[in-house]
Amino acid sequence: MSKPMILVTGATGKTGANVVEQLIERGFPVRALTRGHDQRSKRLERLGADIVIGDFLDLQSVRRAMKDVSRVYFCYPPEGDRLVDATTNVAVAARDEGVEALVNMSQISAREDSESPLARHHWLSENIFDWADVGAVHIRPTFFAELLYILGGQSIAQDGKLYLPYGQERHAPVAAADIARVVVGILADPTLHIGERYVVTGPRNMTIAEMAKVLSSELGRPVEYVDLPNEAWGKVLSERVGLPEFLVRHLTAVAEDHKNGVFSAQTDVVKRIGGQDPQSLEDFAREHRASFTGMVEARATAQV
């Protein structure tokens, strides 16, 4: 019996690319929705994915991508305020195509009264998919482990400091590849998961100061956590980094959530559904050493 076609959206992103690769390894036919052709989409094509160019905000392109699809992974990039529009288009197209299961990337802080507009939109999106009756399963990861080098890689490389406004509360950072394992585990056999909301975490709940100590040990250089005031961090994101106001509001709001314990969780979902233990922060730091230290090393090489 042939396996069902699975549509992976956000297919060149951190979880999406891993989902495509893992599904193909399991023998599933995969259609990968991307916004254009680049080296990342070409790599997925070489792996065997059917590449489709489309736009979440264009219902007709979503319908074309959804043709003959039985299961879907939906992941919308956190880059603007159109998540609800994108969700609605995907929900309509999935409902009309008769999709039997859809895994929705949400977040642990999603709720109706969140100060973050993006977290509120994730909560609305969960409800839209539930109403559409497309076999929705919602995954709610804590902070990606990759955020440690996305938000802190430059300062770690330059002066050994990790500047974040997360206070002394904890979270259990989880690697994108481990989140993908949960997505794939659900898509491969969705029957028992439909209607569930899964909190996805790494193996150990830690403060940011404890994470900095791990990074110090694994990177072979001192790393110190500097607990910034949230307002000051927001100004840095807006004025120096140049992030849009929507995203700044989200990041500062979830920082407050972190200080209030919203992200403090430790679950066995990666092992139970994904089939293996989640990657430790120690192993993650070693694997991604270049992302934490490459900036300084590259500068030194250039000076030589």
In short:
With 304 residues, the protein is of the alpha/beta class. It has helices at 14-25, 39-47, 59-66, 83-97, 117-132, 147-159, 176-188, 208-219, 230-241, 245-259, 269-274, 281-287, 289-303, and strands at 6-8, 30-34, 50-53, 71-74, 101-105, 136-141, 161-164, 170-171, 197-200, 206-207, 224-227.
What overall geometry do the principal axes of the alpha carbons give?
Answer: globular
Structural class: alpha/beta
User: Which regions are unreliable across 5 or more consecutive residues at pLDDT < 50?
Assistant: 295-304
Give the N-terminus to C-terminus distance in angstroms: 60 Å
CA-based gyration radius: 19 Å
CATH topology of the largest domain: Rossmann fold
Number of extended strands: 11
Measured as a percent range, the helix fraction is 40-55%
| Name of the CATH first level of the largest domain | Alpha Beta
Question: CATH H level of the largest domain: which superfamily?
Answer: NAD(P)-binding Rossmann-like Domain
Largest sheet: 7 strands, parallel
What percentage of the residues does DSSP assign to strands (E)? 5-15%
CATH architecture of the largest domain: 3-Layer(aba) Sandwich
Summarize the helix and strand pattern as letters.
EHEHEHEHEHEHEEHEEHEHHHHH
Number of helices: 13
Tally of distinct domains: 2
Mean pLDDT: 93
Strands side by side in the biggest sheet:
3-2-1-4-5-6-9
